[in-house]
């Protein structure tokens, strides 16, 4: 299982890339794994569908529900290229997903997209666990980080040299992707 998360995330990255090429949606991709296979994959479709809730996570959760024939996605694992926003985090818990692997943290995304300070996520350490009532979803950040960071280059005109302003986070561009 050592490289499986990396490979599943590669599918999410490819979805983000394809989707971004076909539309002007942000390059965020996701995939859901169940029983060692991908049952749903897709990208952010907010612009294409004129639907502000069509984040990549929501797109694949809906598709996975149709595939497995139930609303409960227990034993399914979600891979997404960016850390889920609060809307998606809640959907993930509600769907009873087993685990979430994500690539780039929201703090980094906001930095790259030059989100104004007043709209940024609180600069505290990301929660590694999402929970509601008796259900807990484990989270693993930084999965296939290099590939996920590459996606951010698709949505900024800032030159590569300027894309490493994360002095407090470290030199992400040189990190080898890894996740267990
Ligand atoms: Zn979201």
Kindly describe this structure:
With 180 residues, this protein is of the alpha/beta class. The chain has one domain (5-171): Cytidine Deaminase, domain 2 (3-Layer(aba) Sandwich). It has six helices and six strands, in the order αββααβαβαββα. It has a six-stranded mixed beta sheet with strand order 2-1-3-4-6-5. Strand 1 (29-34) and strand 2 form a beta hairpin. It is globular, with a radius of gyration of 15 Å. 35% of the residues are buried. Residues 163-180 have low confidence and may be disordered. Residues 55, 57, 84-85, 87-88 line the site of zinc ion (ZN).
Keyword list:
single chain, 180 residues, alpha/beta, Cytidine Deaminase, domain 2, six-stranded mixed β-sheet, globular, disordered C terminus, binds zinc ion, metal-binding, CMP/dCMP-type deaminase domain-containing protein
Biggest beta sheet attributes: 6 strands, mixed
> What is the 3D form?
globular
Known CATH architecture: 3-Layer(aba) Sandwich
Low-confidence stretches: 163-180
DSSP E strands, number: 6
| Integer-rounded radius of gyration | 15 Å
* Spatial order of strands in the largest sheet: 2-1-3-4-6-5
Which fold name fills CATH's third level, the topology? Cytidine Deaminase, domain 2
* Individual helix count: 6
User: What is the mean predicted local confidence, pLDDT?
Assistant: 81
Give the distinct bound molecules: zinc ion
GO molecular function: hydrolase activity; zinc ion binding
Organism: Candidatus Yanofskybacteria bacterium GW2011_GWB1_45_11
Domain CMP/dCMP-type deaminase: 3-116
Keywords: Metal-binding, Zinc
């Amino acid at each position: 299982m050592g490289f499986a998360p990396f490979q599943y995330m590669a599918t999410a990255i490819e979805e983000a890339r394809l989707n971004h090429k076909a539309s002007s949606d942000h390059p965020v991709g996701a995939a859901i794994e169940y029983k060692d296979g991908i049952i749903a994959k897709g990208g952010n479709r907010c612009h294409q569908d004129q639907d502000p809730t069509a984040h990549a996570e929501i797109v694949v959760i809906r598709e996975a529900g149709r595939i497995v024939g139930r609303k409960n996605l227990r034993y399914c694992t979600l891979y997404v290229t960016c850390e889920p926003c609060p809307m998606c985090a809640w959907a993930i818990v509600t769907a009873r997903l087993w685990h979430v692997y994500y690539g780039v943290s929201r703090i980094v995304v906001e930095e790259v997209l030059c989100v104004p300070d007043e709209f940024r996520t609180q600069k505290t350490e990301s929660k590694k666990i999402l929970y509601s009532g008796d259900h807990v979803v484990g989270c693993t950040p930084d999965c296939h980080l290099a590939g996920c960071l590459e996606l951010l280059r698709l949505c900024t005109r800032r030159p590569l040299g300027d894309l490493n302003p994360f002095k407090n986070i470290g030199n992400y561009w040189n990190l080898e992707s890894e996740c267990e």
